[in-house]
From TrEMBL, chain A:
GO terms for biological process: regulation of transcription by RNA polymerase II. One of its GO terms (cellular component) is mediator complex. InterPro entries: Med22, Med22_Saccharomyce. It comes from Lachancea thermotolerans (strain ATCC 56472 / CBS 6340 / NRRL Y-8284) (Yeast). Component of the Mediator complex, a coactivator involved in the regulated transcription of nearly all RNA polymerase II-dependent genes. Mediator functions as a bridge to convey information from gene-specific regulatory proteins to the basal RNA polymerase II transcription machinery. This is Mediator of RNA polymerase II transcription subunit 22.
TrEMBL record, chain B:
Component of the Mediator complex, a coactivator involved in the regulated transcription of nearly all RNA polymerase II-dependent genes. Mediator functions as a bridge to convey information from gene-specific regulatory proteins to the basal RNA polymerase II transcription machinery. Mediator is recruited to promoters by direct interactions with regulatory proteins and serves as a scaffold for the assembly of a functional pre-initiation complex with RNA polymerase II and the general transcription factors. It is found in: Nucleus. Its main location: nucleus. This is Mediator of RNA polymerase II transcription subunit 11. Coiled coil: none annotated. GO terms for molecular function: transcription coregulator activity. It holds the Pfam family Med11. Component of the Mediator complex. One of its GO terms (biological process) is regulation of transcription by RNA polymerase II. The keyword Amino-acid biosynthesis does not apply.
Length: 122, 111
């Protein structure tokens, strides 16, 4: 059933979301700390500093993107649920039977008309 | 097109979920903003940072719980209010409407 899939997706996305904010903060502090250490010890900025801060920055970017992507996924999910409600609903019985056809009157009308048409042709 | 009450209710609660998701993102951005301040040595942002993180997780939790409830509603109503998925809905009742229209026309002509 596709709703099972929706539930699983919800769980997965929520987990990623809750991890990605904590990761974001973790990586941002790693990048900063290393930055501080290195700039405190030596001022010539060795290659490793650039590497560390670059990878830290990339991780921060990736986690931010993941955060936004997760929220987007959940928004898409609410949208698809809404579409399901609107597009696959079974119409109410009451609306359909608003005015039942008066079958006797209809057959009488039809007879009358066939008589008129046939008699006019003769 | 006006919807039945139950479906209207579902749509409204889905809207509320959407708002909660957006506020989750807002809280995340606020938390990142405050941690930036914290790095600059602004110590009194600490409680604000904590608040933002707390409200991030709070709204994430609320949105998830509400969404799960919505999925359950969806599950319960397949077969009663909803067609099973992957069925293309036809415009049912259209032929009856047409017939009614034609008979009205006939009656009008006959009189």
């Amino acid at each position: 059933m596709s709703n099972r899939g929706l539930l699983e997706q919800l769980e997965r996305t929520t987990e990623t979301l809750s991890h990605s904010l904590s990761n974001l903060i973790k990586y941002s502090s790693v990048a900063k700390e290393r930055d501080d250490e290195d700039s405190g010890e030596q001022h010539e900025l060795p290659e490793s500093t650039a590497k560390n801060s670059t990878s830290g920055l990339m991780m921060v970017n990736a986690q931010t993107a993941q955060l936004i992507k997760g929220i987007q996924d959940l928004l898409v999910m609410t949208r698809s649920i809404r579409e399901k409600w609107l597009l696959t609903q079974i119409p109410d019985e009451g609306v359909d039977s608003q005015s039942e056809l008066d079958y006797e009157k209809c057959s009488q009308l039809l007879k009358q008309w066939t008589q008129e048409v046939v008699s006019s042709e003769e | 097109m006006p919807q039945p009450e139950f479906i209207q209710e579902r749509l409204e609660s889905l809207n509320a979920v959407d708002n909660q998701l957006l506020s989750t993102l807002l809280h995340a951005s606020q938390a990142v903003g405050t941690i930036e301040e914290l790095k600059r040595g602004n110590e009194n942002m600490k409680s604000q940072f904590e608040n933002h993180i707390r409200s991030f997780y709070g709204s994430l939790e609320e949105a998830t719980v509400a969404l799960r409830r919505e999925i359950r509603h969806l599950d319960e109503n397949v077969g009663t209010r909803l067609l099973p998925i992957n069925v293309n809905k036809k415009a049912v009742g259209q032929d009856n409407e047409k017939m009614r229209e034609q008979f009205e026309h006939l009656e009008h002509e006959a009189s």
